[in-house]
Amino acid sequence: MTGPARHTDVGAYALGVLDEADAGRFEEHLADCDRCADELDGLMGLTPLLAELKEATPDPGALTARPGPGLLDGLLGEVATVRRARRTRRLCLAAAAAALIVAGPLAGAALVQRDAPDHGSVSAAKQMYEEGEKIGTVDPETEVEATVSLQPKPWGTHVALRLGHVTGPRTCDLVAVGKNGERQTVTTWAVPPGGYGLDGSGEGTKGDEGGKWGREPLYTHGGAALNRQDISRFEVRTLDGTLLATVRL
């Protein structure tokens, strides 16, 4: 480069690519130019970094070297291993699918059996019924058997109900009636076609259509906000208003 030094020479000077004459002229320029002095201070930190990069860069000749025979054998071995692993995985998946096909019906039967209701176990409602104060009645007209089991609670009264000799299908509820005339629904349930607590010969059962469980009474439970001493009676009614039984306290 010839001629006076320019501001753009600061980069070339920092990299050391200026010849001796140009470097001398730039140094004279640098003595009077604060702008170039500031830029040079910032660029001087790049010099050691560039030197490290040069040392870390591999020899281009090494990059074009041909791979030895050991590298090819190793790659072929890895390919064979991957192929064997994939084949083994496919065989395992096929075996699992076959096992699922064979075991599927058995598993389905087990699920159905597990989900079937266990009528032989004691229900929570029946257990609560056994623990309370029991008061019952048999309605002279409907012959519905209703017994309530009462347990005083801080929030009111827990009520469990045992209901028998009721035909279906129908939907019923148990209503607590206070001494002040207040009415509160304790619980609601549906009576299936086979009914509850029937002997198999009563109206609506059609012989043994209800099966064993149609002959079992219903146990259900709920709660009323009324205290035990404030309750006058309980009524078992259908949702259309038919009175099935009254339990007076």
Automatic annotation (TrEMBL):
Ranges for domain Putative zinc-finger: 10-37
InterPro entries listed in its UniProt record: Anti_sigma_zinc_sf (IPR041916), Znf_put (IPR027383)
Bilayer-spanning residue ranges: 91-112
Keyword Lipid metabolism recorded: no
Top-level division of the source organism's lineage: Bacteria
Regions of compositional bias (Gly residues) in chain numbering: 194-204
UniProt-annotated stretches for the region Disordered: 192-212
Keywords: Membrane, Transcription, Transcription regulation, Transmembrane, Transmembrane helix
Flavoprotein keyword on record: no
Pfam families, A to Z: zf-HC2
UniProt protein name: Membrane protein
Organism: Streptomyces eurocidicus (Streptoverticillium eurocidicus)
